[in-house]
Design a protein that fits this description.
The protein is an alpha/beta fold. The chain has helices spanning 3-8, 27-38, 50-58, 74-84, 108-129, 155-174, 198-211, 220-232; strands at 18-22, 42-47, 65-68, 87-92, 133-142, 179-185, 240-243. 43% of the residues lie in helices and 17% in strands.
């Protein structure tokens, strides 16, 4: 059998696949779940709030699964994967509201809590979920451009984004042949920004939009396509896909 023949046997689609999205009740995670379902996947979402999970399921096709799980707690994540059984792709997009405060204004409790979900939650998802991933499957994490071009007050965000990219490369080596990749979005209009006062948030968005090379701030559906690409393709692993509207260039 030639290499070309072998390649033709690999389906570059999510049709018939089972995709688990942790943090899939809103924002980028919900957009990934919806896009994966449109591509023919059966989707499972998990998040910490019952109301948001129920609302998200109302926007997904019949048959989608929803679980209420505290993704900052290892025992809860382990129990989830024991319940789920086998699947094909694991996506981690969970995150608390963005913490944009100067070093002096952030308590150590706040700092640790931020890492507990965004870093340790992802770490534990890989730890407890990798055994259930079928042959040809993958893990896709989430970072952000704060790690590449931080602003004042972004110490926590920059730190966790850089840590997540390092984790991705290490697990790509350790978990082979499971592919492990990460999407690095720029600013995206999601509920994670709602903790910032609206006037300050709108001013930030307006200034950023003026400077971006693509003349607009991303919607979650745009970013979701990068996650789908990383799940569908069969050759890339340990990679960071930056989708930022050119923000790191200007």
């Amino acid at each position: 059998m030639t290499a070309a023949t072998k390649f033709k046997g690999r389906q570059m689609t999510l049709s018939g696949k089972r995709v688990v999205v942790l943090g899939g009740s809103s924002g980028i995670g919900l957009a990934v779940a919806r896009s994966a379902a449109e591509d023919g996947a059966s989707v499972v979402i998990a998040s910490s709030q019952q109301g948001r999970v129920a609302e998200a399921l109302s926007m997904l096709p019949k048959g989608a699964e929803g679980h209420v799980v505290d993704l900052a707690v290892g025992e809860a994540i382990e129990a989830l994967f024991e319940t789920l059984g086998a699947f094909d792709h694991l996506v981690f997009t969970a995150g608390e509201a963005l913490a944009l405060s100067g070093l002096a204004n952030v308590s150590m409790e706040q700092a640790r809590r931020f890492f507990q979900l965004r870093y340790w939650g992802a770490y534990m998802a890989a730890k407890f979920g990798c055994a259930g991933i079928r042959s040809g499957g993958s893990i896709v994490f989430t970072s952000g451009t704060a790690g590449r071009r931080p602003h004042a007050g972004w110490a926590l965000g920059a730190s966790v984004c850089s840590a997540m990219e390092g984790l991705t490369r290490a697990l790509a080596v350790e978990l082979t042949p499971i592919r492990v990749n990460i999407v690095c979005p720029g600013v995206v209009k999601t509920p994670l920004w709602l903790a910032i006062p609206q006037a300050r948030r709108d001013a930030f968005f307006d200034q950023l939009e003026t400077n971006l090379l693509v003349d607009h701030i991303a919607e979650p559906e745009e970013i979701a396509q990068s996650y789908l690409y990383l799940m569908r393709q069969t050759y890339g692993t340990g990679q960071v896909v930056v989708v930022d509207g050119g923000s790191v260039l200007v």
